[in-house]
């Protein structure tokens, strides 16, 4: 984000994929994407639209980065819903007009390889965040972000933002190792405990002749705080006599209805292992072949804790209960779910690329993401602790065979070389997605036995074939425009949904065709000021899970819709950027109009005692807003770096044939998970060449989670609250090879929510060795 200190901007670059590391330094110019260090971004560099970057050095000096998504913590208008270290199934990226329930409205890449999981959207019955675990903080060289769907090179999922992690490739033999420890004292409702996490990582790489290689391994062992809570509504008493209990915590739900919390659920102990190999071979001085292999495995256990005790002080984990003289429904496995998960995922990426910087350059690239193993075991409704700990009936959900692959051919044509007025980028691409989830009953031991009778069997495929081109045209000395067009053919097929014996449907094939034009223009008004405008159409097609992925488990139900319409958005922005000497100041007006927005809403079914998620189209959502951002170094005094942003967004539901409770109850309401105000600021001070400290602050105003905005109480389970969080970090380079750091996240111990509770005050210590 310290872009005014960047050595050079790319005037003519390689818009997609990896490029030569020894490219000649271009001339600085406002209005195009700028980069740090010697590895070009895989983002298109000829789009005069809003972009931000952060370097490896900035991350180390100022951010307590325990996962790769932490690098995005202080980008303007961005938020990752990370609940604990190693959060593998709920860490959704939010942007200006896309909330934390819409993971399919952003695009996350690592060196041009897709990490976003477009098998689904959000965290309904199945969860689909980006595969953050395939990038470790240690291997990050830089992170680049492009806001909005303004490049024809990307599908409509780029409507919110495009994030690209540029990872390290060495120029000589180098090695790195780090170890970190985090501890979080946590107090909420009936829980009072400390939840630790530790990480260890090591990397080695080298360049020898035409070969370049890199190897990285990482282990994370994390104890997360409780994320969900079993409850009883005060209004849902029964006539069945129950055991008198103590320990129930009186509270109010998001609608302010009085409730009791009776248990802490979803306390993950997760152990993750990551390994990655990157190889590159220079076939000729201008032709490079590259291969990436990543492996990620996760084993996690979830063990709930009952808050209830009987008259003898023993925990109550089953049967009808009596709270303060009123009888309530029996405690079951839905209140105390135990889960064991075992996941092994693999990623492959290959590219063959020319980098002549002459008239023509081209690239062929392919990637594969494979759910080699993806199993989740859970106890049955009637099987509660402590007996369920050692066995008994349950279910197993198996997602093995799920995954996606991409194949693309891209080219760049410079009719008059690098100094000509035109740079034309074009390509053809096919992305294919396969969902396969089989949930089976286990009559014997849920922790070890194979599945039996089918509880649900859902799956299907989607495919997106794309043809695109865009022309960057410098039609006058101070003017540049980019005109692009993307043509897409989308197909959904082989869809099937089976739920027990009640639903067993094979869905017919569907297809859609769309054109998405893009346009952007920049004017170098003055030597230190550039004005930019961008406009783009984006079509976000329904994911396989939204179409076919209905599921039903002990404590959650997800309802699909095979007839969902694609959402279609027009997004525009106007920006002014000014170099103020010590930094870059930017003001951006943005607007988005979305038809048939795809939304998944979660409500609590008190009768069934479980969460129910349903996908639907929302007729029209209109968003307008302003974003003010600054990034500078040596601000006011030498050694002080400042960056920050303030965003205002007015996002309103204008049309919707559907409703939550009564017709029309969503019209005029605010889009869920989009706050009116959000802001962040980060200050890093370099006391000496070896010692730096930083302080950061993050703020969000009130927001809603539901389409009808009925969740007026954000400070409770399933609520979405405002927050103000302060983070601290100190880094000391003890020697040339050894670096120590210490930090505190959420030093003010703000207790804030996004359906689940975010971490409370957490202490972070880290030791790194570089050779």
TrEMBL record:
The keyword Signal applies. This is TonB-dependent receptor. Residues 296-747 form the TonB-dependent receptor-like beta-barrel domain. GO terms for molecular function: siderophore uptake transmembrane transporter activity. InterPro entries: Beta-barrel_TonB (IPR000531), Beta-barrel_TonB_sf (IPR036942), Plug_dom (IPR012910), Plug_dom_sf (IPR037066), TonB-dep_rcpt-like (IPR039426). Residues 1-25 form the signal peptide. Keywords: Cell outer membrane, Ion transport, Membrane, Receptor, Signal, TonB box, Transmembrane, Transmembrane beta strand, Transport. Belongs to the TonB-dependent receptor family. Residues 46-162 form the TonB-dependent receptor plug domain. It comes from Ramlibacter tataouinensis.
